[in-house]
TrEMBL record:
<feature type="compositionally biased region" description="Acidic residues">
    <location>
        <begin position="125"/>
        <end position="147"/>
    </location>
</feature>
<keyword id="KW-0539">Nucleus</keyword>
<dbReference type="GO" id="GO:0031490">
    <property type="term" value="F:chromatin DNA binding"/>
</dbReference>
<dbReference type="InterPro" id="IPR003958">
    <property type="entry name" value="CBFA_NFYB_domain"/>
</dbReference>
<dbReference type="InterPro" id="IPR051377">
    <property type="entry name" value="DNA_Pol-Epsilon_Subunit"/>
</dbReference>
<comment type="function">
    <text>Accessory component of the DNA polymerase epsilon complex. Participates in DNA repair and in chromosomal DNA replication. Forms a complex with CHRAC1 and binds naked DNA, which is then incorporated into chromatin, aided by the nucleosome-remodeling activity of ISWI/SNF2H and ACF1. Does not enhance nucleosome sliding activity of the ACF-5 ISWI chromatin remodeling complex.</text>
</comment>
<dbReference type="InterPro" id="IPR009072">
    <property type="entry name" value="Histone-fold"/>
</dbReference>
<dbReference type="GO" id="GO:0008623">
    <property type="term" value="C:CHRAC"/>
</dbReference>
<dbReference type="GO" id="GO:0006334">
    <property type="term" value="P:nucleosome assembly"/>
</dbReference>
<dbReference type="GO" id="GO:0000122">
    <property type="term" value="P:negative regulation of transcription by RNA polymerase II"/>
</dbReference>
<keyword id="KW-0007">Acetylation</keyword>
<feature type="region of interest" description="Disordered">
    <location>
        <begin position="93"/>
        <end position="147"/>
    </location>
</feature>
<dbReference type="GO" id="GO:0008622">
    <property type="term" value="C:epsilon DNA polymerase complex"/>
</dbReference>
<dbReference type="GO" id="GO:0046982">
    <property type="term" value="F:protein heterodimerization activity"/>
</dbReference>
<dbReference type="Pfam" id="PF00808">
    <property type="entry name" value="CBFD_NFYB_HMF"/>
</dbReference>
<feature type="compositionally biased region" description="Basic and acidic residues">
    <location>
        <begin position="93"/>
        <end position="124"/>
    </location>
</feature>
<comment type="subunit">
    <text>Component of the DNA polymerase epsilon complex consisting of four subunits: the catalytic subunit POLE and the accessory subunits POLE2, POLE3 and POLE4. Interaction with POLE4 is a prerequisite for further binding with POLE and POLE2. Heterodimer with CHRAC1; binds to DNA. Component of the CHRAC ISWI chromatin remodeling complex at least composed of SMARCA5/SNF2H, BAZ1A/ACF1, CHRAC1 and POLE3; the complex preferentially binds DNA through the CHRAC1-POLE3 heterodimer and possesses ATP-dependent nucleosome-remodeling activity.</text>
</comment>
Amino acid sequence: MAERPEDLNLPNAVITRIIKEALPEGVNISKEARSAISRAASVFVLYATSCANNFAMKGKRKTLNASDVLSAMEEMEFQRFVAPLKEALEAYRREQRGKKEASEQKKKDKDKKADSEEPDKSRDEDNDEDEERLEEEEQNEEEEIDN
């Protein structure tokens, strides 16, 4: 856990970026206001985490999951956040599935390529064997002619 209260604050760069995205262009914000928003955001995250942890503990789990966070939002009376959070979660899961499928496809393609190269090697070996047989036959024919 954090040793000092300052350790609980979110990074200023992240807070500043979020503020800039939320406000109309050309609107400035003072350092004091940015600091207040940063503290409020930190308190919100800590409170949401604590509520979500309560749901995980009720389920006899040590790991928080998405349903714990969604339940915490409802318990904290932030129901209007639940729908956008569910949409963001679904988008994240789709993205992860896409990455996983792409990775699996890449692995399959790599395996297919390796498999297709192996028969080429066996063809090369067959060709080498054929050449050796031909050489032996030629030598045998030459020996027969000499005899």
